[in-house]
Automatic annotation (TrEMBL):
InterPro entries: PPM-type-like_dom_sf (IPR036457), PPM-type_phosphatase-like_dom (IPR001932). This is PPM-type phosphatase domain-containing protein. The lineage of its organism: Eukaryota, Metazoa, Ecdysozoa, Nematoda, Chromadorea. SUPFAM superfamilies: PP2C-like. It holds the Pfam family PP2C_2. Residues 267-317 are annotated as: Disordered. It comes from the Eukaryota. Residues 17-225 form the PPM-type phosphatase domain. It comes from Diploscapter pachys.
């Protein structure tokens, strides 16, 4: 058995900011990397920000690796640690400046599908026996509470108040199981699971942004998500993700109207939807080029992105589907 790439998507949060996420696949393994938003200016690793550096380094390592998944992950951890020692320009200002990411990866090993993950990327497996998470089921309740406690602070285009930035830096100083520049810590934090696999199965790997369709927006359960994906494709789900972002910025009655239009198969115009003083026009169609750059961000469970209640965060969403053939 091997993997065939079916479709993939990486949505940048802003057109003028490097994408710090990656997805990819090889004959027998696939992966998603969700870089943690930088909390300071570039410099530690030269002109490139730490998140973009880490995702690019991990992407190269995953692409070059082969073998059982533990071996693949080990080679990635070591490659990142070695590259950091080579590329580092100075000592980090503090722990918060060290690059880190969430990741998930899968590999075919005999008649089993093996999954590895760190932090909050999500993997779904569709087989003849049903649809199952290979990673923990998404849950945003804890991060919602923390975001509410932080209060306002992140404005348009990712601008953060000093208080929110300071809070993010303090949070990043706390120990976390993440993909980073310490190979031993990455190794210790990575969790593995196994499932039976057969020809015709599908495996979906995604960042927590796409996983928000399950929990934050409650747009689909896993079965509904895959049904929509197979029927309408990934582009359709990407538009659903953006509309989910938009409705959280609207007055309650307008958000209900957006949902009603979606249920009728009508994609509302984001420019209209963003204005609480205007009514939605059922005649408008939402083209992919019309999508705004993530008017609402998401706050990862390991405290890497600003709160989900704040607009304008330069968050990114990533997804890859591979088929077992």
């Amino acid at each position: 058995m091997h993997f065939d790439l079916i479709q993939s998507l990486s949505l940048a949060g802003k057109p003028d900011v490097p994408n710090d996420d990656r997805v990819g696949s090889a004959d027998r393994h696939a992966w998603v990397i969700d870089g943690a938003t930088d909390l300071g200016a570039p410099g530690l690793l030269g002109e490139r920000g730490g998140a973009a550096w880490l995702s690019a380094t991990a992407q190269r390592a995953f692409s070059a690796a082969s073998g059982p998944l533990r071996q693949v992950c080990e080679s990635v951890f070591v490659a990142i640690a070695q590259a950091y020692q080579q590329d580092r320009q100075r000592e980090p200002l503090a722990t918060w400046e060290l690059p880190r990411a969430a990741f998930a990866a899968v590999a075919l090993e005999g008649d089993e599908l093996v999954c590895a993950h760190l932090a909050d990327c999500v993997v779904l497996h569709r087989s003849a026996s049903g649809i199952h998470f290979l990673t923990p089921e998404p849950d945003r309740e804890a991060e919602r509470a923390e975001a509410a406690a932080l209060g306002p602070g992140t404005g348009a285009h990712g601008v953060r108040t000093p208080a929110v930035l300071a809070d993010r830096r303090v949070a990043r100083e706390r120990p976390r199981a993440v993909l980073g520049i310490d190979a031993e810590l990455s190794r210790e934090g990575t969790l593995y699971s196994r499932a039976s696999v057969s020809l015709g199965d599908d495996v979906l790997l995604m960042s927590d942004g796409f996983a928000a369709l399950f929990d934050t927006y409650r747009a689909y359960d896993p079965a509904g998500f895959i049904e929509r994906l197979l029927a309408h494709g990934l582009d359709d789900l990407a538009r659903t993700r953006e509309i989910g972002n938009l409705t959280k910025n609207l007055e309650p009655q307008l958000a209900v109207e957006v949902r009603r239009l979606e249920a009728e198969g009508i994609q509302p115009d984001p420019a209209t939807a963003l204005s609480p003083r205007q009514r939605l026009s059922p005649g408008h169609q939402l083209a992919p080029t019309a999508l705004p750059a993530h008017p609402l961000g998401h706050h990862q469970q390991f405290d890497e992105h600003p709160p989900p209640t704040q607009p304008g965060v330069e968050a990114t969403d990533d997804f890859i589907q591979v088929g077992v053939t």
